Amino acid sequence: MKPFPFRAGELYCEGVPVREIAARVGTPAYLYSCGRIRERYGQFVRALGGNNNLICYAVKANDNLALLRLLAGEGAGFDIVSGGELYRVLKAGGRASRVVFSGVGKTAEEIDYALKAGILLFNCESESELRLLSERAVKKKIRARVALRVNPQVNAKTHPYIATGLREHKFGIPIRDAEKLFVSVHGWPGLELAGLSCHIGSQISDLAAFQEALQKILLLAGQLSRAGFPVRYLDAGGGLAVPYRPGDTTPTIAAYGKAIRWVLNGHDLQLIVEPGRSVVADAGILLTRVIHTKSTGRKQFVIVDAAMNDLIRPALYDGYHEIRHVQSRRRPVEKCDVVGPVCETGDFIARNRDLPAAEPGDLLAIFMAGAYGFVLSSNYNARPRAVEVLVDGEQWRVGRRREKMSDLIRGEGLD
Ligand code: LLP
Predict the structure, then answer these.
(1) pTM of this prediction?
(2) Is the CB of 162 under 6 A from ligand 1?
(3) What is the arithmetic mean of pLDDT over 2-14?
(4) CA 348 to CA 221: how far, in whole Å?
(5) Per-residue model confidence (pLDDT) at position 415
């Protein structure tokens, strides 16, 4: 489906004109298409095929409660990286038995919480973490299921801030140390070593990189099994790219599934994947209104009411997001910088972008904002965070209300 079609020159989200939503809830506003999220999740289900797999949506990509509930309803598991994400998943009705816990710095409190909830798998990334997990599980007289997160040393060719698969990155256990560690940890009390995992980075278009990583992990699984330590779970992480720029070509979910299944063919393992961006990115837009326009002689600026505190991807990763007028404009195209009101030169949504001339009051839609959008937002410059709206067919509802001034000082005291 096309979650954001133009009809008679006007942008819709599914069956609702986005202008109507903006008129009711104001801007900036995140809008998510429920139909599109279901569709993308369904594509993963079909692409992986069979029953022996689990799709653990990476909560960090978008942790809106209503969205998590929607995915839980579709049968998704969840990949979490903090106690807070587990809290959100459970509140949304997700089942702990379908949760995997990733991350290099799990604290004792987070581990206790996840043990109590009864999650499926801890993806562990260091001996120190394994020691802590073993200790906490013994205290509770239970055994924690563990997968070693292995760093397969594969170059994922993505932005350096979101590549994770090389030795210089903090993630995972270097693959050549993994067998030794697996074997030495095997007898530790409180642990059930049950799997291997990897995640080589995010926004990856090269299917061969996923295959290379998996091949290396499978080789390791084979060595372990020959040494008497069979592996049950294989967690391939997330990372599938989405097309941000018009004309970008990225692999389909079906092609990704096929590539992975091809490598796994004949291996009797339960496959886990942790897609985040590829499930939700194109299901979301950020709606913003033009406040002012100004020209410095050198540059034309369009100043909008969404800023880097609402969407930090352009500032942080040089991320590209397509921008379009919500109502098609027959105006001359201008090269402009679309910027927010935050007092930083780095506060831009787009630079040197060709757009039909904008005027104060115009509504603009910033596309591909469903992943790593609202979740990375902040209150910088004491700006209340945006409202989040879920659209399903002709229906829409607020999933999270816009923050009020009073939210800005919640928890603060004057003495
Ligand atoms: N699993 C693990 C262990 C991860 O670290 C991540 C993402 C995922 C799964 C999901 O990856 P995805 O399918 O979404 O690529 N804020 C950045 C992206 C950071 C990704 C961090 N880890 C951005 O906006 O590009």
Answers:
(1) 0.97
(2) yes
(3) 98
(4) 46
(5) 85
